[in-house]
């Protein structure tokens, strides 16, 4: 059983994390390229946010949302 876990550790350390080690080594040459993965995640998140806002505006323009306050008497 120990050999199985050591095999998994070897696979992860020396194969799957090799690209991240290369990015870490690249930091001394170019900060922007070393953080390219973070920039990609930020761009994807920003695009998802813009899409979400567009969908909210579409539903708001169609008056598809119930806007009556029924939870508390002081809200209505």
SSE blueprint:
Elements: H1 2-16, H2 18-26, H3 31-34, H4 36-61
Radius of gyration: 24 Å
Number of E strands: 0
Helix content: over 70%
Question: Per the principal axes of the C-alpha atoms, what is the gross shape?
Answer: elongated
Number of domains: 1
Low-confidence runs of at least 5 consecutive residues: none
First-last Cα distance: 65 Å
Main sheet properties: none
Protein name: Uracil phosphoribosyltransferase
Organism: Christiangramia forsetii
InterPro entries: DUF6341 (IPR045922)
Transmembrane segments: 31-52
In short:
By secondary structure, the chain is mainly α.
Features:
mainly alpha, 76 residues
Q: Care to describe what's here?
A:
This protein is mostly helical and 76 residues long. 71% of the residues lie in helices and 0% in strands. The chain has one domain. Keywords: Membrane, Transmembrane, Transmembrane helix.
């Amino acid at each position: 059983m120990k050999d199985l876990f050591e095999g998994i550790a070897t696979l992860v350390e020396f194969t799957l994390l090799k690209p991240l080690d290369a990015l870490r080594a690249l930091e001394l040459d170019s900060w922007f390229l070393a953080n390219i993965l973070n920039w990609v995640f930020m761009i994807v998140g920003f695009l998802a946010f813009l899409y979400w806002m567009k969908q909210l505006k579409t539903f708001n323009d169609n008056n598809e949302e119930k806007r009556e306050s029924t939870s508390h008497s002081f809200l209505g």
